Amino acid sequence: MVYVEHTGQAPSRGALSRPVSVRDDAAAWVEAWPDARILRVNGRGQVRLVDRQLMLEPAADLYSEPPARAVLLGVCGTVHEWAVRDEFLADDFSAGTEVEVGDLRSHGALLDAADADRYVTALALLTWQGDAHFCARDGAPSTITSGGWMRVCTACGREEYPRTDPAIICLVHDGEDRVLLARQANWPARNFSTLAGFVEAGESLESCVAREVAEEVGLVVSDVVYVGSQPWPFPRSLMLGFHATADPRDELVFMDGEIGEALWCTRAEVQEALAAGDWTSSADARVLLPGAVSIARRMLEAWARAGD
């Protein structure tokens, strides 16, 4: 899973481009179909991987034409790439082929930038398509158009597009050698992470950081700085990462009931927790941190390295 750090320039999307003009060109889809590739995603959001790469299959071997329910991910060179919600068997390959079946949480960190882009785009679009069968205005059925990137109401013609919900995730530190870690009340006792929450209507990102930190742990933050982002299709979020400073002498107050425990950790303690593995680890550690698929871990790794 790719975490994009802020550099002031737009990051490369890897080998997959998203030409909008192709999405409405059904003739181009048909012409390109013999060479097209398709990613099958099952009902649990799982895909197949071979040698840590997504298994993109020859589309024409599976379907005679682009299925109405498929989504056009983009174009790689001249090859059209699609995704479809479809069940598959883990062992329907020739003997000797090493195939892994996994989802974004279990295998996302293994993917390169281009495959991560394919996967999160497929999950986001297919999940939206599965949830948006009816018009939000009048409840009439809607039809899929634009290669899966738009739905049109059959009654009023209203156009609907896949939504992305912005959410902030913030690494709160003291400006020196300590960082705040927290766990939700329903998490296992040793599982900690950074603070996060959804942006409300009419709210700036910086205001959201201040509000969420205050609601969750009762701290006032300053020096809010954007550091990077990560698509997070559960079901349609974009995680926007920030750093902010707070005073560790202030009392921690869990105001909204979401946080069950929070603690300030030194840089050395964070480095120790990172070395212990992640939430799946059986290591005898006081604190376990999220896995490599998460932007939270990437921010903590970068913060921990800054003290070297």
UniProtKB/TrEMBL annotation:
UniProt keyword annotation of Metal-binding present: yes
One Pfam family matching this protein: NUDIX
UniProt keywords (A-Z) are:
Hydrolase, Magnesium, Manganese, Metal-binding, NAD
- Catalytic activity, EC: 3.6.1.22
Q: Where is the Nudix hydrolase domain?
A: 162-287
A molecular function annotated in GO for this UniProt entry is:
metal ion binding
Top-rank taxon, per record: Bacteria
GO annotation, cellular component aspect: cytosol
Any GO BP annotation: NAD+ catabolic process
Q: Does the keyword Hydrolase apply?
A: yes
InterPro entries found in the cross-reference section: NAD-cap_RNA_hydrolase_NudC (IPR050241), NudC-like_C (IPR049734), NUDIX_hydrolase-like_dom_sf (IPR015797), NUDIX_hydrolase_CS (IPR020084), NUDIX_hydrolase_dom (IPR000086), Znr_NADH_PPase (IPR015376)
Going by the record, the broad EC class of this enzyme is: hydrolase
Q: Which reaction does it catalyse?
A: a 5'-end NAD(+)-phospho-ribonucleoside in mRNA + H2O = a 5'-end phospho-adenosine-phospho-ribonucleoside in mRNA + beta-nicotinamide D-ribonucleotide + 2 H(+)
Query: Which coenzymes or cofactors are required?
Result: Mg(2+); Zn(2+)
Query: By its UniProt entry, which NCBIfam families does this protein fall under?
Result: PRK00241.1
Say which family it is in: Belongs to the Nudix hydrolase family. NudC subfamily.
Its recorded name reads: NAD(+) diphosphatase
What organism does the UniProt record list as the source? Answer: Rhodococcus wratislaviensis NBRC 100605
Q: What gene name does this entry carry?
A: nudC
